[in-house]
Amino acid sequence: MYATRPCGHRYVSTDVYTGAVYARREYSAEMTSQTAHLGNTPSSDQIRRAPKVLLHDHLDGGLRPATVVELARDCGYAQLPDTDPDKLGLWFREAADSGSLERYLETFSHTVAVMQTRDALVRVARECAEDLAADGVVYAEVRYAPEQHLEGGLTLEEVVEAVNEGFRQGERAALEAGRRIRIGALLTAMRHAARALEIAELANRYRDLGVVGFDIAGAEAGYPPTRHLDAFEYLKRENNHFTIHAGEAFGLPSIWQALQWCGADRLGHGVRIIDDIEVREDGTVELGRLAAYVRDKRVPLELCPSSNLQTGAAASYAEHPIGLLRRLHFRVTVNTDNRLMSHTSMSREFEHLVEAFGYTLGDMEWISVNAMKSAFIPFDERLAMINDVIKPGYAALKSEWLFQQTATTSGSAGVQG
Ligand SMILES: [Zn+2]
Is residue 65 a contact partner of residue 86, using CB atoms and an 8 Å limit? Predict the structure, then answer.
């Protein structure tokens, strides 16, 4: 029923994506940011202070290099490629820069190896919350795979409770430092393994206790999301939420399965939806049926620009599909994926986008509100974050910018006068 055929770098379904059934809606590629008037180019300092929302960040991909070194020493793990934190940080980045998702995933063997005790998990989760808060993140959903932290004898439940404890400690430490952050955990099942239903049940057991949803991750090619259909059907019956890593290394069939077979609420990456969008030489744009569905249904795309560059989904920030997807008003969100491997942060991701696309404070606000709308916490809590934290935060930054402009103008008028 769902035959696929390669079409250049694209995978095209013969029954879904043929030219004959393309949606006949055309859009000008020149359709530019409709919020550009809402603020001007933010400085690095303003980007850092702006309230940001993060939906796609891996706990085992965000450790501080110095913490990896110390935890390895504590647990006797002798296989780190370097024990100097700076050199180790560089090693992670270079290994992840190789352009292959499989090699990118290899770097996790070291971080996971040092996260096998309760104390290590508490510390990593606490530092994660502190680092995100210091970067101006006000809400984050951080994911990890409990099944990867059992080698030291912990049970799945003990892993979840340790990470929850670390997040709560980090939230409190951030508050003491004058910053507010809220963190929800997403439990991930590894797509090459066969524990998805068990992990989905675990996520359901700990909902309202710090866990807000479920995900599957790992090498995408050869492990389609439908392999774990029982887990997704279980979560739907429980009225629970889940996202699926899809459309990162593999293309449209993976996205299509994640949405139409598994019922994902969001797409982890989803960047390859671009394969279903045709930009013609005259600048008009045509959406295929799947791309039109993703946009019409406001399916959130958890885009991770730096990570996508490392895995080869885009050649440069300026060429990253987020530019076109944002102009076409897909529900775009910006994320870090793995801060250690990609040597990034939310602020750094936005700095790249400001430089590549001229994004303004208005664009940042639009993206942050998109992300908050797409979070897995209850609607009223999302709304409170938008109205009480995000909008006032951007309003303050915009007025700051306006006053700066006024001061500059008055200053120069005085000199001229
Ligand atoms: Zn990811």
Answer: yes
CA of 186 to the centre of ligand 1 (A): 11
Most confident segment among 36-40, 195-199, 309-313, 397-401: 195-199
3-state secondary structure of 140: strand
- Tell me the pLDDT tens digit for each residue of 185-194: 999 999 888 8
Annotated active-site residue 248? The verdict is yes
Which residues on neighbouring strands pair with residue 413, listed in sequence order? none
pTM summary value: 0.88
Catalytic residue of the set 248, 349, 351, 365: 248
Output the CA 40–ligand 1 centroid distance in Å: 31
168 alpha carbon to ligand 1 midpoint, in Å? 23
Bridge partners (DSSP) listed for residue 302: 268, 333
Rounded to the nearest angstrom, the gap between the alpha carbon of residue 89 and the centroid of all alpha carbons in its chain is 21
Would you list the domain boundaries of the chain?
Answer: 28-402
What residues pair up with 366 in beta bridges, in sequence order? none
Would you place residue 385 in the very low, low, confident or very high pLDDT band (cuts 50, 70, 90)? very high
Fold of 28-402: TIM Barrel (3.20.20)
